[in-house]
Amino acid sequence: MVVVGVTSYFNWRDNALALRMTYVRKLSRLGAVPVVIPPDPSLDVGEVLERVDAVLLSGGGDVDPRFYGEEPRRGIGRVEPGRDELEIRLVREAFSRGKPLLAICRGIQVVNVALGGTLYQDIELEVPNAIKHRWIRGSEFEVPMWYPVHWVEIDTGSRLFRILGTRRLLVNSFHHQAVKRVAPALRPVAWAPDGVVEAVEAPHHPFFIGVQWHPEAMDDEYSWKLFQAFVDAAKR
């Protein structure tokens, strides 16, 4: 039995944990057992990692800029510092232990910050000639979550390319922050047409990949390939 710990966020209004079912369904259909990791900074991440075979960092709000040495600027959205603190420690520990990790949307940003990188606090304000990356207004989606809106170019020398078997991929997009300075331990391996980093990986790690899009919400062959490779890595 493969157990995957999946991070979640806190719904302040309802005093409840929250996680989109798309993550759970994708993992379950591939035979993995998803276990929700609450956004509680008091958790012992070492104990958490002893009980799971792999970690999936789910999407969510913005990373607090103080974790990468900046003050909040115009364009920053909702932050959840307790979640940031937990996930940053979780990433660092998973990295040091060689534990398989897949990071999605906010997740790629957390991975980059945890390992020493920085973020664009708002792409529209900071990236010249940026394409539209955030296809959501407030809480309303402007397209179905599974709908691809732009291409990414994938490095043909990357693990991600070997998994997907394609150098160009159509992806969905629901973010306004992105990787800026890439962490030293990571390698950028996919880019949007405007140059924004869309995927990173740790070259010497068994499986440590972050993508800026939401493959859990898509039903194309490439999304399934990525999740299958992740679950397979968790079995080893």
Explain what the structure shows.
This protein is α/β, with parallel strands linked by helices. The chain has a single domain, classed as Rossmann fold (3-Layer(aba) Sandwich). It is 28% helix and 24% strand. It has helices at residues 21-29, 45-50, 81-97, 106-114, 123-126, 159-164, 221-235, and strands at residues 2-7, 9-11, 16-18, 32-37, 54-57, 101-104, 119-120, 136-137, 140-141, 150-154, 168-171, 178-179, 187-191, 197-201, 208-211. The strands form four sheets. A nine-stranded mixed beta sheet has the order 4-1-5-6-15-14-13-10-11, with helices on both faces. A two-stranded antiparallel ribbon has the order 2-3. A two-stranded antiparallel sheet has the order 7-12. Strand 2 (9-11) and strand 3 (16-18) form a beta hairpin. The radius of gyration is 16 Å and the shape is globular. The mean pLDDT is 96.
Count of discrete alpha- or pi-helical segments spanning 4 or more residues:
7
* CATH architectural arrangement: 3-Layer(aba) Sandwich
Backbone structural class: alpha/beta
* Contiguous runs where pLDDT drops below 50 for at least 5 residues: none
- Please give the alpha-carbon distance between the first and last residues: 11 Å
Strands of the widest sheet, in order across it, are: 4-1-5-6-15-14-13-10-11
Top-tier CATH class: Alpha Beta
Radius of gyration: 16 Å
Domain count: 1
**In what range is the share of β-strand residues?**
15-25%
**Fraction of residues in H or I helices:** 25-40%
The CATH superfamily label reads Class I glutamine amidotransferase (GATase) domain
Mean pLDDT score, rounded?
A: 96
CATH topology: Rossmann fold
